[in-house]
Each structure stands twice: as C-alpha cells, then as structure tokens.
Design brief:
Blueprint (H helix, E strand, L loop, with lengths): L10 H9 L4 H23 L21 H4 L1 E8 L2 E8 L1 H12 L1 E6 L11 E7 L5 H29 L1
Antiparallel strand pairs: 1-2, 3-4
Helix pairs in contact: 1-5, 2-5
C-alpha cells in the first residue's frame, strides 16, 4: 500500500491564537462567516441549474407555478456553541418537488371508487424521468467548496484571534 506525508506549517501559531479566543461568540461568528461564503458558492452554482416549468400551475392546480421551484431555493446559517452550519435547501412547500425532479418518479392516478367503502385504486401512468441538478452542481463545485471553506476558516479565525 502507498503512503503519503503531509506537512502543515503554521499550525502551532494558529492553535496558540485560537487559545486566546475565550469568547465562544467570536469563534461562532468566524465559523458562520466561513460557512456562509462557502454555501453561497454552492447556492450560486445550483440556482441556474434548477429546471423551470414553462407551463401549468394554474389557480386550481396542484402543480408548481413556473419558476416556483427555483424561487424556493433558500440558504440559512445555524449557529451553535463554537459551531456554525450553513445549509442550502428548498422551502417546505417545494422541497418534495425538488426531490421528484432530481430523481424522477412514478406517475399514478386515482381512479373512481371501486369498493363499497369508497376506496379508490391507483393506476400506473408511466414514469417521469429524472432531471438532476443538485448532484451536478455539487460535483462541479466540490473541490472549490473544500478549498474555500478551509481558506475562510483559517482567515476568519485568524482575524478573530487578532481582535
């Protein structure tokens, strides 16, 4: 089996600087800035890849209106005690549709009640093909996300330690 040696310089200075940060809020704020910058890169790559419906979504329709899925993309940051997580996701009202579009789905249609109890039966209507957009966005930005997060954490924690 092969092996690899990695040399990290400046780690001792960074650890010493971090030990001067006694205020958890400073650490949380630095991490939040870092994750927000990184999540924004993914958000910006993902948004134009989201398929936009060109028709449908009338007043009584259960279908999304044109552009509603794309407009449902949101980004938020949760801060904890010396931690922060930025998330790119969809609003609750469109999240399930995003998964159907990403992975495809089977179409079923309810038929008229067939039993005395009024239960209806579902009939298979074919498949809707997948239109991946989340995975391609991640694949195209993964390396950049890793490098950006690493650089931003170092930069923001170093700045916080200097204050």
């Amino acid at each position: 089996m092969g092996s690899a040696n990695v040399k990290i310089t400046g780690l001792e200075q960074m650890v010493a600087s971090l030990q001067t940060l006694s205020d958890p809020k400073m650490i949380t704020d630095a991490l939040a800035k870092s994750t927000e910058v990184t999540a924004k890169i993914f958000y910006d790559k993902l948004q134009p890849l989201i398929p936009v419906r060109t028709e449908g979504g009338g007043p009584k329709s259960t279908q999304l209106k044109p552009g509603q899925l794309r407009d449902g993309l949101v980004m938020y940051t949760d801060k904890g005690d010396k931690s922060a997580v930025s998330t790119v996701t969809f609003r609750k009202d469109v999240k399930h549709v995003a998964l159907f579009v990403e992975y495809g789905h089977m179409n079923v249609k309810k038929t008229k009640p067939l039993t005395k109890r009024g239960k209806s039966r579902k009939t298979y209507q074919g498949d809707t093909p997948a239109h991946p957009f989340m995975r391609p966005a991640f694949d195209q930005t993964e390396a950049k996300l890793r490098e950006t997060l690493k650089a931003e954490v170092i930069k923001n924690l170093t700045e916080a330690a200097k204050r």
